[in-house]
Structure formats: C-alpha cells, structure tokens
Amino acid sequence: MTLCVAALYRFARFPDPAELRAPLLAVCRDNGVRGTLLLAGEGINGTIAGTDEGIASVLAHVRTLPDCADIEVKYSRAETMPFHRMKVRLKRELVTMGAGELDPARNAGTYVDPQDWNALISDPDTIVIDTRNDYEVEVGSFSGAIDPQTPSFRDFPAWFRDRREELLGQGKQPKVAMYCTGGIRCEKSTAFLAKEGVEEVFHLKGGILKYLETVPRDESLWEGECFVFDSRVAVGHALEQGTHSLCHACRRPVSAEGLASPLYEEGVSCAACHAERTEEQRASYRERHRQELKAQAEGRAHVGAVLPDKAQGEDG
C-alpha cells in the first residue's frame, strides 16, 4: 500500500500559534502521520505523510484552525515513509524573508490561474521575476524571467530595493508577475512589493508545479525542469520525473553533466559544494553514505546524522 504525501500552506492570522502546537502534534501522532509542520503568526506550512485516513484526519483538524477552512493541499504518493518523525515547529515566519511585518493573508498580490499566466508574462508591459534561489533557477525557469541570483529567500528584499529604479523605471510602473515552486514564496513576495508601493503585482496560483500539471507541453513557456524539495529532485511537464539527482552533502540539484564531474562523489560532494567542505567533512559524509548503503542492502531504515538541510523553510 502506498502512502499519501500532503504538502500544504496557508497564510492566516494566528494570534497565538504556540497554543495550536500541542493539539496539532497530538492528532498527527495519534494517526501515525510523520513530517514537519511549521506554525507562525502568519499561518501554517509543511509536508506530512501517512495513510489516506491518517492524512484526512490531520487535514480535518488543520481546517478548523483560524481561516484555514479553504486551505489548498497538493497530494502525491510514496512507496515508503519519507520522514523519520513528526515535528510541529514554531517559527517567526513560514518562509524567512526578514522584511519586517507583512500580511500576506490580506495584502498579497493578485492570483493568476495557470491557464492565464502565458498571456500575462507575454505582455511587454509586464516584468517577470523568479523568486526562487539561484540553485533552483539553474534547473529551469520561465522564458524571459529575471533571475535575482539570490542564494536565499531572505536576500530578495535587498535585491529588489537595490534594483527598484532599474526594474520599475521613472514613468508608469510596469506590471510585476512573480512565481515560485508551489506558491508560498511568491505570495509573500507580492505582499512585500505591495508594502514597497508597487501597484500592480501578480503571482502564479499554485506555483510552477500547478502550471506544469495544468498547461500542455506544446503551449508551455517553461524551459527546463522544476526543482522540488522531495525525493523526486526535479519534475517536468505533467509532473513527470526529471533528470536531476541530489547532492546529499549540500542538497543542491545535480544535472547529468554534473554527475560526470570529477568533483562529484555520491553522498559526499558535487562540483558546487566540493570547495565548501573540508576533507574531514567529506570523510564523515562518506562514512554516512556507506552506512546508508549497508542499511539499504539489509532492508532497514538508516537514521544517521542530520546533513545540511538546504530545503528548510523554502518549500514553495
């Protein structure tokens, strides 16, 4: 029997997110659900896995939280449990931007459905900005989109403020269309731009994943693949399995060409991170990988040291 994996987020006003933590954790554990859920004053975000019944029970509880009755959930399937434990964590922000007080639940930009996205970004009066991190953009992007080349989402506000005049000019402001993997980062980005005084801000509803799922390949303006924060690594049109692998040392995607690099060693390093790690660190990763392979051969799960989690707080 395959397991149900549910990815969810909702910007909502939680006056006391700490008060919500224990009941949410209890319903997850009571139903054998594992994964990570984040609670903040601005809402909920995370990915969980379990039986169909268990996930349904947890989502029923989530929908009782303030302004979460209509929360959107993306479902997928997994042959084995992808998470070791269940965590419900409290955070200042669902995705860390560090731009002061924002209210995406009230002040986000205008949603654009995937079937209307091509017309918007093809309009010469629209500038298109990719709100994802640099290593994600390398895997694929929309044709003509601006790549901020930011290593972290928290770098986006400074990038925009530094280039505001260059992007928007002195006359009539262009429309700004922004996108991300699943919707959460571009939703927060539009709230930030609205706070900065940008008048016409739009974002892709459901993110790239919904676009790739909805828009036929022969009509698509997407080029390449889309990096995802799970075991698939990257997906293409119709959410088909992509061609990228994952470096388990730095959590960056590795292309077929990257796998051929002499700096790539499975479970240990890739060309992007080789210079960022010491030989002692690589030796530790090498031993961990050896233990993982041994556990796999013996048909058991391996729970070892936690490696750097580049995906933390960035899903979407």
SSE blueprint and pairings:
Elements: E1 3-11, H1 17-30, E2 34-40, E3 43-50, H2 52-62, E4 72-78, E5 86-90, H3 104-107, E6 110-112, H4 114-122, E7 126-130, H5 134-137, E8 140-142, H6 156-168, E9 175-179, H7 184-195, E10 201-204, H8 207-214, E11 222-224, E12 226-227, E13 234-235, E14 245-246, E15 253-254, H9 256-259, H10 279-297
Parallel strand pairs: 2-5, 6-10, 7-9, 9-10
Antiparallel strand pairs: 1-3, 1-4, 2-3, 8-11, 12-13, 14-15
Helix pairs in contact: 1-2
Function: Catalyzes oxygen-dependent 5-hydroxyuridine (ho5U) modification at position 34 in tRNAs.
Protein name: tRNA uridine(34) hydroxylase
GO molecular function, one term: oxidoreductase activity, acting on paired donors, with incorporation or reduction of molecular oxygen
